[in-house]
Amino acid sequence: MPLYKPANVNAPVLSQFSLEGKIVAVTGGARGIGLEVVRGMAEAGADVALLYTTSTVASESAAKIAAETGRRIQAFQSDVTSRSEIDATLNKVANEFGNGRLDVVIANAGTCTNRPSLEYDEESWARDNRVNYDGVMWTAQAAGKIFKRQGKGNLIITASVSAILVNIPQTQCAYNASKAAAVHLAKSLAVEWTEFARVNCVSPGFIMTEMLTQQPKELFDKWLSMVPGGRICDPAELKSEPTAYNIIPTKLIPNSPKPLLHYKNAFVQDGKLDIGLAYDTFVKNGWEIQWVTQYARCQRSHYHPETHEAMVVVSGPGQIRWGVADLDEDEEKHTYGDAREEGGLLLDVNVGDLFVIPAGVAHKNYDPFTTSPRVNCLTGNARGIQSDDPRAMVQGLEMKGFMMMGAYPRGEIWSWGDGGDSPDFHAIWNVENPELDPFVGSEGGIGKYWK
């Protein structure tokens, strides 16, 4: 039979990236690239099995990502070099964690040895190959049997640029050859499994993992000198592009031809948001923090006609509805009922969700888990942090309930529109872009998406 086809190939493109309800397993998931893959899969909506061999913090890492994303994350100890063990583990993941299903397996476990080719013996040569090649095969075989029973599934193999080039000055021919073998294994399986699974392969370059940081400084400096961009990629950057939502105009709300940008886990360290880092980053990039607010059960939908805005969740969870006007004065009806324009976008949000909002895009921020009827600005009148030491004031706030911190391009003051004032849509759409993105500065963000 032909490879399965999605039910609706014409669904909006962003919805096709959602992993809501999917079960994913990631080998080598306790650190480096694997840990960020686990996080990225969870942020996309999947429940994830984090597979590890020797890590002492795998369960703790799984619990932290689960708390940050609201998804089920569970650590499973296994050994990819043992065909029987990885087979048993993936079947356990499918049967117990996945309630009889496994949608995606990412064969990510890897190791690297820096050794001259003339000094290998049988054991040192086999070491890299057992993990990087045999381990991929045994992981793939176990996954493939499950996928064939199900009739569909997805295998992704983490290879390396070392599969197609020779890194210098280190000598690592076992690693290079094993990764080249993994790439061709992926191609072979992709052809063989066309009736029941998709197989893909990714080949990262230099990534700031322990595999790099444990190397001698002279090697690290040499690698850095050969990178055109002048820096090494952080593992989180493998998934740190913002999600861009195109919010179309309605009869009452201008919204914007510029997309709403959504960064996940911004400023989050060790499971908590570093509000001082957020404050400093906004200021460095020319954005002025004007408020920190604790939200109530309801809020009226509104937009800012004369300025762009950045908001980051500093305590959560909460909800934000985007893009539509409220049609009734009753807060319960327009927040939880149907007294609003059709359409819009409703997002569940939590700590580290950062939004860069074009002028004109309507939003309402509310906390369905509180009974509080009043929005509470904790820093003054919401048009500046009213303190001789604004940063210290922000850092000293108690994080409780659904709270966000808001910033605007330096020198700009926000005003309010709610759809009842017949706005000039084109004037709002032409509000000048700030020079820098509040989160990534000149490295992308609005410079890339708001052209």
What is the strand and helix layout of this fold?
Blueprint: E1 23-26, H1 32-43, E2 47-52, H2 58-69, E3 73-77, H3 83-97, E4 104-107, H4 122-150, E5 154-158, H5 173-192, E6 198-202, H6 210-213, H7 217-226, E7 243-245, E8 260-263, E9 268-269, E10 272-273, H8 275-284, E11 287-294, E12 309-315, E13 318-322, H9 331-336, E14 345-349, E15 354-357, E16 363-366, E17 376-377, H10 390-395, E18 403-409, H11 425-429, H12 446-449
Parallel strand pairs: 1-2, 1-4, 2-3, 4-5, 5-6
Antiparallel strand pairs: 7-8, 8-15, 9-10, 11-17, 11-18, 12-15, 12-18, 13-14, 13-16
Helix pairs in contact: 1-2, 3-4, 4-5
Give the number of domains. 2
> How much helix is in the residues?
25-40%
Helix-strand makeup class: alpha/beta
Order of helices and strands: EHEHEHEHEHEHHEEEEHEEEHEEEEHEHH
Number of helices: 12
Any idea what the shape is? Answer: globular
Spans of at least 5 consecutive residues with low confidence: none
CATH superfamily grouping of the largest domain: NAD(P)-binding Rossmann-like Domain
